[in-house]
Write a structure and sequence with these properties.
It holds the Pfam family ABC_tran. The protein is an alpha/beta fold and 579 residues long. The protein is 64% helix and 10% strand. Residues 1-11 have low confidence and may be disordered. The structure holds adenosine-5'-triphosphate (ATP). Residues 115, 349, 354, 372, 374-380 line the site of adenosine-5'-triphosphate.
């Protein structure tokens, strides 16, 4: 999306970029090794050029010229291979470290961040953009030093032949630099466009492959194929522009290089003709001048990478500059026992407020159902209790203490929360049950939790038991089975406060009853808050809260509210009819 905050056009934030690099734990030792190897290569290159000049000037003495020439040639070859290897290793390590850093940041950003930025586009941040940044460091920033040193060594040598010659050579060099600079600016714009188009394509493919079932059930294959095709066409167009610009740049650079060579010859020939240079020096001068041109042309090619990476730098450093959730600030929540109180809570997702001055009491040690029409704010209420979003105003207390006083990590660990989606990851049943648990329970304890939610028989039927894979996002499980494992995972936390968002909605009637009997038993004397949509589930509550448009319409003992509240009565009547 062009309007996406990640893509805001705000280039040039190098302070943020260097602060990001500072945190990335770069492979400094390898970098020093690369710089040292480059310095040695520069000096070896000078010796090698001088011996080759002597050789081609007719000095063919075996020990004085030929053997040293061969020695420096071979040494230069070996050192160039080693330095190339180190450079590639550095780039790979930098990729790894930067990806780790951005990924750590990504998972620690507040949910609010993802309201404004498409999470799927972050895939490209972690893949393509990080590669551009590693390239930028290894192919642009470090070569500033290696190129400068190599140029210095060469110019120093030329000036040892004749100082004026050295300055004439320096004056002749900027032709190539100017051309590369102009081409670099052109390529930057196109490369940035390619990155954005690829990010959009990745986001589309990731989202659609997650929802293949919907696409098939809606017979939307042709429409989705066409929509994906449009994204691919946009990527292709951007790549096509890049190919044209790069294709045009090659002959322009070649012409510039020929012109440069002519200028070099014109500059040096006068010195040779006047006898200021010997034949060997004249050949060496030519070799040095060509080397210098090649070094600077290559560096100006890196400048193109620099311009291309600027967009990536901006996007990634913007993510890194986003404030993370402060997970560890505050006191440690030992046990969220006690009633939950909302005091004048204000909350909104956008400009429209969802809750305004919401006051609400959820009793301790009892089972409370939250009901209400779709969109009335039930899920958000649970999310706010779990502190997944910061409040705009007011406070939420548990047991008389402001929940924001506790560290987020200890607070969320102490609460059990089964969300509406029953999220499962690719992995084994055990991986999913232990996710975020912070301890390794015995198989007996796992059996107990699975028996409580009626899924133990299923586990026993698997030849691998708890080590059976569940497929991508739990694809090999039914909706009801996913919910049972999700509830088991929450029960294994042994929470003093359990939040359930339609956590039994996909289960059969008998299964629901069994799971609720277990929840009542396991959570006896502890606080349970759940969102319910159907008559059967409502019956499991002791206490009932009816939400409507972000307001509490009714709250009290279940029987009282069911008898007095029109929404509940209607719900029960529909529920009875349905059975
Ligand atoms: N991440 C979000 N970004 C923006 N608006 C949101 C977000 N989540 C919920 N909303 C809006 O907040 C309101 C309350 O949503 P919520 O999911 O809490 O309702 P609900 O009562 O749980 O609904 P349902 O019974 O359908 O699950 C809705 O208008 C919804 O559109």
């Amino acid at each position: 999306m062009e309007t996406n905050a990640i893509f805001r056009k705000n280039y040039g934030s190098f302070r943020r970029f260097f602060s990001m690099l500072g945190k990335a734990n770069l492979p400094y030792l390898w970098i020093v090794g690369y710089l040292a190897a480059s310095a040695v290569i520069a000096n070896v290159g000078v010796s090698s050029t001088e011996y080759s000049a002597a050789l081609f000037a007719g000095n063919v003495g075996l020990t004085a010229v030929v053997l040293p020439y061969l020695f420096y040639q071979i040494l230069s070859l070996i050192l160039s291979s080693v330095s190339g290897l180190i450079n590639n290793l550095c780039t790979a390590r930098m990729d790894r470290n930067l990806r780790r850093m951005v990924w750590r940041k990504t998972v620690s950003l507040p949910l609010r961040f993802y309201e404004n930025n498409n999470p799927k586009e972050l895939l490209s941040r972690i893949t393509t953009d990080i590669s551009s940044i590693s390239n930028l460091v290894m192919k642009v920033f470090l070569p500033i030093f290696t190129t400068a040193y190599a140029s210095f060594v060469i110019l120093q040598k030329v000036s040892s032949y004749d100082g004026a010659l050295m300055w004439s050579l320096v004056a002749a060099l900027p032709v190539n630099i100017l051309i590369s600079f102009i081409l670099g600016r052109l390529q930057f714009g196109v490369q940035d466009l390619i990155n954005r188009r690829n990010a959009e394509l990745t986001a589309t493919v990731a989202e659609r492959t997650n929802n293949l079932m919907l696409i098939k059930s809606m017979s939307a294959e042709a429409k989705e194929a066409a929509a994906g095709g449009e994204r691919m066409k946009a990527s292709y167009r951007a790549a096509g522009m890049n190919i044209w610009i790069t294709g045009t740049a090659i002959p322009i650079r070649a012409i510039a290089s020929v012109l440069q060579t002519i200028v070099i010859i014109l500059v040096g020939r006068g010195y040779y003709a006047s006898g200021a240079l010997s034949l060997t020096e004249w050949i060496a001068y030519y070799g040095f001048a060509i080397q210098l041109t090649n070094i600077l042309s290559a560096y100006c090619g890196y400048w193109t990478s620099f311009k291309s990476a600027q967009g990536a730098v901006d996007r990634v450093s913007e993510i890194m500059a986003e404030p993370s959730e402060n997970l560890n600030a505050g006191s440690t929540m030992e046990s969220p026992a006690g009633g939950i109180r909302f005091e004048k809570v204000d909350f909104s997702f956008g400009s429209e407020p969802l809750f305004q001055g919401l006051d609400l009491d959820i009793p301790a040690g009892r089972i409370t159902a939250v009901v209400g029409p779709s969109g009335s704010g039930k899920t958000t209420l649970l999310n706010l209790i779990d502190r997944l979003y910061p409040l705009n105003g007011g406070l939420i207390q548990i047991g008389g203490k402001d929940t924001s006083d506790y560290s987020l990590t200890s607070f969320r660990r102490a609460l059990g929360y089964v969300t509406q989606e029953s999220v499962m990851y690719a992995g084994t049943i055990r991986d999913n049950l232990l996710h975020g648990l912070g301890r390794t329970p015995s198989d007996e304890e796992l059996d107990e939790a699975c028996a409580a939610v009626g899924i133990l028989d299923y586990v026993r039927r698997q030849s691998l038991g708890y080590d059976a894979p569940v497929g991508e996002s739990g694809a090999s499980l039914s909706g009801g089975q996913r919910q049972r494992f999700s509830v088991a995972r929450a029960l294994l936390k042994k929470p003093d406060c359990l939040l359930l968002d339609e956590a039994t909605a996909a289960m059969d009637i008998g299964g629901k009853a069994g799971v609720w009997a277990s929840i009542r038993q396991v959570m006896a004397g502890k606080t349970v808050v759940y969102v319910a949509h159907d008559a059967q589930t409502i019956r499991n509550a002791d206490y009932l809260i009816v939400l409507r448009d972000g307001q509490v319409e009714a709250a009290g003992e279940r029987e009282d509210v069911m008898a007095s509240n029109s929404y509940c009565r209607e719900m029960m009547e529909n529920g009875e009819e349905g059975r």
